Amino acid sequence: MKLGQATIKDIARELNVSSSTVSRALKDYPGISDETKRRVKELADKLNYRPNAVALSLRKSKSFTIGVIIPEVVHFFFSTVISGIEEVAFSNGYNVILCQTNERLDREKSSIDTMLSNQIDGLLVSFSKETTEFDHFSKLMDLDFPIVFFDRLPEIPNAVNVTVNDFEGAYQAVKHLLEQGYKRIVHLAGPSNLAISKKRKEGYLKALAEAGIEADESLIIECPGGNEKESFDVTKQLFENEKNRPDAIFAHHDIVAAGAMMALKSLDLRIPEDVGLVGYSNWQFSSMIDPPLSTVSQPGFKIGETAITMLLEMIDKKRDYKSEPVQVVLDTELLVRKSSVRI
Amino acid sequence: MKLGQATIKDIARELNVSSSTVSRALKDYPGISDETKRRVKELADKLNYRPNAVALSLRKSKSFTIGVIIPEVVHFFFSTVISGIEEVAFSNGYNVILCQTNERLDREKSSIDTMLSNQIDGLLVSFSKETTEFDHFSKLMDLDFPIVFFDRLPEIPNAVNVTVNDFEGAYQAVKHLLEQGYKRIVHLAGPSNLAISKKRKEGYLKALAEAGIEADESLIIECPGGNEKESFDVTKQLFENEKNRPDAIFAHHDIVAAGAMMALKSLDLRIPEDVGLVGYSNWQFSSMIDPPLSTVSQPGFKIGETAITMLLEMIDKKRDYKSEPVQVVLDTELLVRKSSVRI
DNA sequence: TTTTTTTGTGCAAACGATTGAATAGCTGTC
DNA sequence: GACAGCTATTCAATCGTTTGCACAAAAAAA
Fold it and tell me: Which residues are in the HTH lacI-type domain (chains A, B) (predicted)?
């Protein structure tokens, strides 16, 4: 930056004092005469002096910048998380530098590299779908570098993380479907390598088991892509045949549910009368579609807030997360809308 | 950062050479013996040396970081823009630091301040709804600091910017409604202080004028909040009365349209048979609601890409935007879906 | 008046990397 | 054997800020 920004040196030269004096005067150090302080501050004001954060970073080995790694900004859930992160970071004087991996491991690794050379003070991570080994994280953690994982959990012992109670959320959702009298419930599952997918599936299974219903493996279908096209096709195929047709769907997330909803409509099946439908994540559109989609809401903003709050505590060493690792699990909330209510 | 990151000095010490030698060896400067180069590179590799970007920034007065100011991440449109920005920035070795203003001017100003003290090389801005005077931008521009505005245009002569052709988009949308035989078309408008709102309204007016229909001011209603609740209420009130009831809506964006759609449904009005509906921005959900919403799609990703490409050119002085200011206008696309087709 | 204490400033090194200029040790030439 | 010319390396300053220590002058105590 050219920007002719005034520096401490400029002030010092102009006032015929040393840089040290200016520095101290600006920070109201004791041992500087009131007169000098006044003159320094006055000039600083006039020149619109703004401390050079880069120089400060270098000097203090602290950049007041934290890195955020997420798969994709355009996922509504992630954008709410970012919003929460931003909010707390900003009010604590931290900057947020953002990298999205587009679900790719190589991008994840190189993003971390650039961020590290930019001397970030800590990292908030929701890793990519491709990430199955976690050395690039655990190496950093061994060096005491502060990392908080959110939403997606790494297979690293004692990793500090914030997630939602996916198991419970899924359990509640399916239990609700059962209470509404639905019997043959399909689960459109997420990518099997993500912990969240497993948790949701387990919740689904538990609810069935509790109701004394034996799980039918043919009703559990993985939708790794997570787009509406995929689930449209899957659902259409599943419900085409009248014989032994399922009567409800619990989807891994709302986009998947939306695809399923369209498939059901194209088959002239009524929702919720013929088929009940519950999604996950409470995407922005869920309440606006017809019928409004029942879903499990995840507190995205809260996740972001919590994660960065913990990260800042790690950075400031206010709490020793090493001896007392923390895994925060936030509650989900089942939002019952029209798509799953038939009694 | 503790991180015991190896520095040039560490390598120098270990190898009993000076830092300068190490620096030059790493960059294959001429005048360093092959033997030394080999040893330096080998050790650098072994120590996993990574240049300190902060030190570099300070030295070179260039941070390879650009700042992005947007109103809110959770707006789908903005998140696609960010995605485009991210992509190009990353592949050019730039970092993105992100601040959302939550539509507040004070946040906007203080964000810019922090970003500047972090020595960003340039700024991409979509300013807040509250921003009505632009001194905080024009001051910077006078100092030749690179800024590109997107989506929202400041009242600054010669500001470099990227927008979509909102006028044309709105015009096409309303023309389409007219072609479908709708006659009394409501416009649920955006905040009147934003240029985009004006442009869309003008497009609406032009289409009407062309069709020889006199604009009825009572059919143009501002929805400054832009949430579905607001437009729900407005729409309900407008359509409640059978007498002289409007027969179509052109909404300032899809959320507003979605609110209107719910209101219409609650009045048992059929879409598109009784009332036609077109939104704006092609939010993710628009294709998934029932009926699927016709809308004007804005190329968010492309906007991001274009804006940062121009910014990088300004930063690298590849092009002189000062003598030849540029205002890029990207085309929108009318996506005709069910909500507006009745013939 | 001399010594001690206080007050206000300045010096210089440091953070990590770069870079123009200086220098040391060669080899080769006349 | 003196000196030019080359190669490989080091010196030192620089970017903007902070901070331990030294130091001078003035004020207070002896």
Answer: 6-60
CA distances from B157 to A128, B165, B329 (A): 44, 19, 16
3-state secondary structure of A188: strand
The DSSP line for A301-335 is HHHHHHHHHHHHHHHTTSS-TTTS--EEEEPPEEE
Residue contact A119–B52, C-beta within 8 A:
yes
Which of B62, B118, B144 lies nearest to residue A53, judging by beta carbons?
B118
Tens-digit pLDDT profile for residues A270-289: 999 999 999 999 988 888 88
* Span CA (A91) to C1' (C5), Å: 44
Q: What pLDDT shows up at residue A265?
A: 92
Q: What is the CA radius of gyration of chain A?
A: 26
Give strand D nucleotides closer than 7 A to any protein Cβ.
7-12, 14-20
If you average pLDDT over residues A87-100, what whole number do you get? 93
Segment 138-167 of chain A within 8 Å of chain B by CB: 140, 143-145
Q: Which residues of B touch A62 (CB under 8 A)?
A: 1
Task: Summarize pLDDT for B298-308 with one digit per residue, the tens.
Answer: 999 999 999 99
Q: What is the mean pLDDT of chain A?
A: 92
Closest-approach residue (CA) in chain A for B52: A117
Q: Which CATH number fits domain B63-163+300-329: 3.90.1150.10, 3.40.50.720, 3.40.50.2300, 3.30.1330.50?
A: 3.40.50.2300
Residue A4 has pLDDT above 80, yes or no: no
Minimal-distance CA residue of chain A relative to B290: A290
Domain A166-298+334-340 sits in CATH at 3.40.50.2300
Q: In sequence order, what are the beta bridge partners of B106?
A: none
